[in-house]
Design goal:
The complex is a heterodimer of chains A (164) and B (99). Chain A is mainly alpha-helical and 164 residues long. Chain A is built from 6 helices and no strands. The relative contact order of chain A is 0.07. The longest helix of chain B has 31 residues. Classes of the chains: A mainly alpha (164), B mainly alpha (99). At the A-B interface, helix 1, helix 2, helix 3, helix 4 and helix 5 of A face helix 1, helix 2 and helix 3 of B.
């Protein structure tokens, strides 16, 4: 067993286990902590795919930013200690059935098609390629994204403004 | 590891996120499930991009991460607004439009 295979299995177990923790724990705050672990595991998968820049963005934006914002929202809407934080699940059988059905369809169709087993070498460093592509071919979506971020920032601060 | 392994891993994570979205009562819990599903999609994009030696998927992942952050900020501000007007964060209690 090579190092790559072993690393992939460790990361897979970490990712799937923490994802299960997100959807199965009874405590909402613990859910968020499991999500932080799952996002960090995803960053590890990005590292295995030679995307160092994306792994950094993943940790900075997701595990740093999103988790912090979610914790703030929990602090505002629930009490951190006490019974309110317990969040239950409903219709577990239907949800599990639909998820298992989806997974079955996906794995079945994945096993039918021929997928590449080896990697085509990138032209140069992926980070350099990403930067070049964002500034040339994808310049219009990039600028639109800036507008989107500004609009969502204004909208979020408007919706969550303090009561008069 | 071939592309199949990465796509299968992403499919498993997506299914877990789908399960969370369908079963959680708390709106914040539903948002966490959506986060998991978006992550699975990002893994797919990066894996396809790497195995084809083409950078487009990674650029799309950068965009997807940015849009996710905007979505989380908006979703959570809606949750806070909901809590302020209804004193609840449970999705079942949001039934103003029910006749």
């Amino acid at each position: 067993m090579t190092l790559e295979v072993a690393g992939f299995w460790v990361l897979s177990l970490l990712l799937v286990g923490s994802a299960l923790g997100v959807v199965l724990t009874k405590n909402l705050f613990h859910s968020v902590l499991w999500l932080a672990l799952a996002l960090t595991g995803t960053a590890g998968v990005f590292l295995m795919l030679d995307a160092e820049f994306l792994a950094g963005v993943q940790i900075l934006l997701y595990a740093g930013g999103v988790v912090t914002v979610v914790v703030f929202a929990i602090v505002v809407t629930e009490r951190l200690v006490g019974t309110r934080l317990a969040h239950t699940s409903r219709r577990v059988l239907i949800g599990g059935g639909v998820a298992a059905l989806f997974l079955g369809i996906m794995l079945n169709s994945l096993s039918r098609i021929v997928l590449p087993t080896s990697r085509v070498p990138m032209e140069s460093d992926p980070t350099r390629l990403i930067g070049t592509a964002v500034m040339t071919r994808f310049i219009l979506p990039f600028e639109l994204l800036a507008v989107l971020l500004l609009v969502s920032l204004l909208a979020a601060s408007y919706l969550a403004r303090p009561e008069e | 590891m071939g592309l199949y392994a990465y796509l299968s891993l992403a499919a498993v994570v997506f299914s877990i996120g789908l399960f969370g979205v369908m079963t959680r009562r708390n709106t914040v819990g539903i948002l966490l499930g959506i986060e998991l599903m978006l992550n699975a999609v990002n893994i797919n994009l990066v894996a396809f991009s790497r195995f084809h030696g083409e950078v487009t998927g990674m650029v799309l992942t950068v965009f997807a991460i940015c849009i996710t952050v905007a979505e989380v900020a908006l979703g959570l501000s809606i949750v806070i607004l909901l809590f302020r007007t209804r004193r609840t964060a449970m999705a079942d209690h949001v039934d103003w439009l029910k006749g």
